[in-house]
Design brief:
Layout lengths: L8 E6 L22 E7 L3 E2 L5 E2 L8 E4 L5 E5 L2 E7 H4 E5 L1
């Protein structure tokens, strides 16, 4: 991938949601909720502080993160769908 996020943005690849419930019921695409977990594939340089210094992000490439529902901008590159998120506003947690 040859995209580099700016500022405090990150690019994530959304993980596929489960197609079968715990009870074994197969869900059609229309019934599935939008996934909220993703893997970070690129991280911007960080937020620019008032004094001109960069504040690096806590998120690194390879982290699995939870993000707010219906957030970010969807981008398709080389047939793969990515989501560009604002690290401070859209990302809620790092999954450990």
């Amino acid at each position: 991938m040859k995209m580099r996020p700016l500022g405090e943005r990150v690019i994530v690849k959304v993980t596929a949601s489960e197609e079968v419930t715990k009870g074994g019921i197969v869900l059609p695409d229309a019934a599935k909720e939008k996934p909220q977990e993703a893997e970070v594939v690129a991280v911007g340089p960080g937020r620019l502080a008032e004094d001109g210094k960069r504040i690096p992000l806590e998120i690194t490439v390879g982290d699995r993160v939870l993000f707010a529902k219906f957030s970010g901008t969807e981008v398709k590159k080389d047939g793969v769908e990515y989501l560009i998120l604002n690290a401070e506003r859209d990302i809620l947690a790092i999954v450990e």
